[in-house]
Amino acid sequence: MAPSEPGPAVPPTARVEWPDEEAFREDAHARGWTDGLPVVPATPDRVAACLAAAGLAPGVVLGTVPTREVTVTAEVAAANAVMAGCRPEHFPVVAAAVRAHLDEYGNCHSTTGTLSGAAHAVIVNGPVATEIGVASGAGCLGPGFRANASIGRALRLVIRNACRAVPGELDRATFSWPLRYSFCFAEDETVPGWRPLHVQRGFSPGQSAVTVHSVMRMISAWDSSSRTPEGVLDTLVAETRVHGMSGDAFLGDGINVVYVMGKEHQRFFVEAGWTKERMQEYLWPRLTAPTAGPRDRWTNLGAPANILVVAAGGAGMAETWILFPHLARAVTRPVEWGTVAP
Question: pTM of the entire structure?
């Protein structure tokens, strides 16, 4: 089995043996390798299967956290993916999520060490979502879907074990919150006239991609009275500006806000022929307009394209979830397969 950091005097590539799986699970809890839930033993065969699915050699570097002197290899990420419950076919998505999170503008050090306890949303686009069963419909933001739960959890275990974001140590969250266990879903790409998120961000429709967004807070914008695109968007503007988004010298004007729009809101835009791009053009000047009182705050969005609209969810509630950012840009990376790299 190939445990990952932290672990007393056990380097990431070491092999350690336990008499049985129960002994491993108990030792994993004792060593602090888990999020508090049981983990699957990361045996060499299971780790190798994940690496093979992504075409990655064990030592390939997925990213670094220079401020922590951390380097995350494919082997370490694969071990954590196994522990999270991932199947081998999930690992290419996990690897893309790790690369996105460890991008310079994913800002791992700040988003995982912050007092506010930021979560990390993993949004999956392209054919892989259907192929491996990442849910985008009813209940997709909650429990009940293996791919969603295990992929989101895998990123969080990498953050904990490889990036050393352990509560009370480098993770300084005052409270933290349940989204830090796992947060992964797919976009519903069947909405007529709407370009999927990854296509808007420069990828082809047939390419699979993952977007990781650091989430400061998550608010439901519930509106069952509006019957026009403008009415729904005005509700989103009002809810967003209650909280606002401050500027940041490192990120500049590259901050994003994500609107996860459900079916009951989507239909007004489809019926009126509104694209996502038209929605962005309507929202941007209203979100960035001068403030008008203590309950109306400025939002730091440099361009309409910084507003990310994602279709997901089931029928029933007329709501859109707003994912407010925390000290990072939303970063999109391709899901890649291929021959084993050196």
Answer: 0.94
